Amino acid sequence: MTRMSAQVNFVCWTPEDVISTIPTEAAVPSDEVLLATHAPLRITRRGGHGGHQASELVSEQQVLDEFLGAAPNNGVLVATVIGESGAGKSHLVRWVNATIPRTPRRHVVYLQKTETSLKDVVEALLVNQRDPEFEELRRKVSTLGSGMSVDEMEHKLLAELAEALRTAEADSAYGKALVGENGLRLFFTDPLFEQHLLRDGSFIRRRAEHALRGRDADEGDIPLEFTAAELPTDIGDYANVQEAAAATQKLFRRLIAQPAMQAEAARLINENLDIAVMKAASLAVGDIGQAFKKIREKLVGDEIILLVEDVALIQGVRRDLLDAMIEVGVVQGVERYATVRTLMAVTPGYYRESLPETFRRRSEATSPIYAVDVELDGSSESEDDLVDFVGRYLNAARVGKAKLESESPNVPNACFSCQFQTSCHDTFGASRQNFGLYPYNKAAVLRAIRACAEKDPGLDHAYFNPRKVLSRAVRNVLTDNASIIRNGEFPPSNFLSEEAAEMRLPRLPIYIREQIEGSLADEEAGRLEALVTFWGSVGTQPISGEILSAFSHPPVPASIYESTVSDLPSESELTSRRERSDNGMPRSVQSKLDSIDAWSEGKPLTQALANELRTVIREALLARIDWFDVVIKEPDAATVTKAVPVGARSVSIEGANENLALGSAPLIRLERSARMAVTFKGLVMLTEGFPERAGDALPRLDGLVAPAVHAAKARIIAELRVSETDLVGATASLIRGALSCGVVQPKSDLDFVAASLWRDTARRTDAGSRSAEWANAYQAYVASRSAVIERLLGGIGTAQGSTGAVHAIDFARFAAITRKARKLALGDSEYEVPDWCRDSERKLKTLVALGGRQVSHWQSLLDRVRVHLPHGSFTDTIDAIESAVRDGQTEGLVPVADLADLAARNSAARELDAKSIAQIEKLLAAAASCAGTDLAMIAGGTAGADLQAIADYLDYSARWVAAGLRQAEISGGAVEDVDERLKSVLADWFEITGGDASE
């Protein structure tokens, strides 16, 4: 066959073959596919049975030989396979099932993951026995999954749990309070709580579904167990607890107040769960155990091989089945029951914490424990084993399920018939079995395996997870990327990125990633980084031209490989860097730089460092804001902080655990990238006093904040409430206020500017003729204008800093504002004012509302004056009063105790401005046809300053003159005897008092 030199955008598999051949669960493939893809597991035997060491590595074949060949302990052997989820423990059980020799006297019971309903488990345990007692057991569970609905199973499960808890016994104080008539059973029988326990996604619903239909495809190895979180402690968020029975409420209140009691409640429920499930399925406690015992009795002399692939399978009948596993078969030297050899897979946590101690002790007395795990220690032998594992599955994907099964036990190599085999293996490599690694190479395979690894809880070790590798690094990569490879776009930018970040794998140095990001578009940059990181071993191995050609990738710049291995921290270096300084850098500074490196690789940024960076960036942003366009007084710190708060609400950093409220819109959003990490490190250098190492951090900082300057300024202006709308509203209020206080109505822009800035708190010259209400309202309003004017000036003028007074204003802008404002001010329509003007506006409205009362006050004063004022002028009236004093004094008709004071009053009256009377008469005439603002403007005008004094003088004079007239009447005919001159004086007196001389 002619071999072509190299492949380009070549796909040597079909997604359909991948899906059918490469499972995500060990129980899915056929035995032929399983054996064709099986790679040796790393198995540690624990326990010194049969003269072996306490702990040593063994092969799968050794496990099988020991499992079948070891002498049982009184007819029982229980071998436990321990491993974390996905480690391969179930695969070992599956391999044993596929490999174990079948004989007429060996009965294999295989409880596999794909058949996990209670009905399936019971049927498997009956070992195809058809005796009447076994048929009865079949009949009891026959309704599960067909004759019984999930709803029925849910309610039966609740009822059986309630009964089990009612009759349960407990030793602890909390336990005693939770069993019996008034215990936990109340939650399962009270309608309100029953409804809550059966809500969507609840434990009871999932458990009932599991009993009827088996294990969900995405369910883990850990069985469904009740937890304290499943207790109805949150029912108050969904229902009114007061609607529950009194006894249920009492238990509920006690339970929610005591976490220890909640833990005991969960334990009791789990302890009685198997009983409840069995009874809900119409099985009695012991039915399974007794049936299995009878089968063993019937098969004496044979062996039963019980293979339990997943401990989740034995839910519901766990208690019976565990007892049956360790039920001795040899009694007093006589074999009464068939030997049972059990191989059971279980997670370490469930083995230690959930399996009964009696079971563990007896099982460990019969067999060692087999632990399945592979620690990713980096040794070349271990790496070759891992590459072989992936190579087998890559080959299986190319061959396909049908061919693997048809040619079993032989395993065909798809590469042997490929036209590109030689060049492909030279370029991408092959496993020790000569299975090609394409589209991976060895470096990419090993990084993919580490990306899909599992961290050992509490330790720094990572362990190989075959299930995750098969699911994500093989199955998903091959199926999801077939078209991407054909399009010449492989690897994608997000290639196993989430997995690598979760495992915190090293990435390219920040400055290299920054170079990539700066020279390519986002998708192309991500693609190049993925290629160099996976296929180039994090930049330490140049990517060959053949790989680039195969993926239709352009040449990689040589500068990408300028970094040395020392640039890339090893696992041990990542730990030790925290304990040392680098290049003389203080450890505290180096710690910050390391945190930024870790952040760039997917770890969260520490809160303290994130806040430091936000503060630096925020201060730079504020420093860029000028207050000259538009002209405005520099705002005070409190206003700035309120508008641009310190923290994530202003500067948001991706990956800093910010928990921003929904709808928050930070001014600056900083995405996680290599360039940003370099910028952050430069800012740290600046703030820590190492500017020579900061690089171009300052220009970068300026580039970060520049786009946000306008928005930040807008937010501050909005907080100040000095937008044009705010200023127009406030100016309109000030203009209307000035007019209502008597300022002459402006005509020019300058006049209106002056009116809006008018403030005069001195006593009005016409205060004496003002009503008390109006005068008080006037003083209150005038006093409030000053603060408003200062805020207005701050919005249109400049000052020395944030505390100095405004010393210059933008007159052109202010004039434009006043032109808009005066239209509002001169009308009666409402207008909006900013909050800093609201108090003044409220006081202005009070003053405007009192305009009518002031006009009424003037009218009353004018009425008093006109009653006493003769037809002549006010001066003539004063002359007449003084004449009356002279002429009446000789007749004893001036009844004033202090004539000197009277003379002084008359003299002072001559100083009063008689024009006040005419002024007020004119204003009253104008006011007759006005209302609202126009009336307020009339009332605010300065006029009638002496009107009150004139009215008071005339009232006083009228009172003593009237008294003098009364005195004349008392004197009898004295008035008739006076001469003509005196009669004239008396006539004037009557006019002053408003009387008639003829009287």
- The end-to-end distance, rounded to whole angstroms, is 152 Å
Widest sheet, order of strands: 2-1-9-3-8-5-4
Give the overall average pLDDT.
Answer: 84
Helix residue percentage: 40-55%
Strands, count: 15
Question: Number of helix segments?
Answer: 48
Structural class: alpha/beta
Q: Which regions have little confidence, pLDDT < 50, spanning 5+ residues?
A: 563-580, 977-982
Any idea what the shape is?
A: elongated
Q: What share of residues are in beta strands?
A: 5-15%
Radius of gyration: 50 Å
The main sheet comes to:
7 strands, mixed
Question: Would you kindly provide a brief summary of this structure?
Answer:
The chain has 999 residues and is α/β, with parallel strands linked by helices.
